[in-house]
Each structure stands twice: as structure tokens, then as C-alpha cells.
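Running this now, will post back.
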Amino acid sequence: MNEFVICIDNTSNPASLILGKVYRKLRDADGEKHNMIRVIDEDTYERDGYLYPASMFVPIELPKIAERALATALGN
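Update: finished.
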């Protein structure tokens, strides 16, 4: 199952995150212990994504068809 989040705060990283954009949350148990979320941002140089404070995102639930479409579009 894919988990998606939407960016609600990009003030500290306006070049790397787009406010209102949906990102796929990547698994990172260590990051989550520190209240961080790993996403692949606009700087796609790092294939494994980057860690950001969880407060910069909110989780969203999407219909299955939308999840599949986003997963395909994001190459996952």
C-alpha cells in the first residue's frame, strides 16, 4: 500500500518542495522515530529521497485508482 502526503509548509525548502504537491512517503523507520518523513522531492538527485520534518506534510487518503495513477507517474 502506498502512503501519500501533501506538502503544507515549504518555507525552509522552497526550491525542493512545492506547497500543495502530493508526495509519496517512503519507508524510513529511523526517520520516523525522529518525527521525519522521507520523500523524493524536486531535487531528484538523491534516488532514496530526503528527510523532512513530518510537520511539513499531512497524510492523505486517495481512491485506489488515484493511488495507482500516482504510483505509476512517480515511477513506483
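The chain has a mean pLDDT of 88. More later if anyone needs it.
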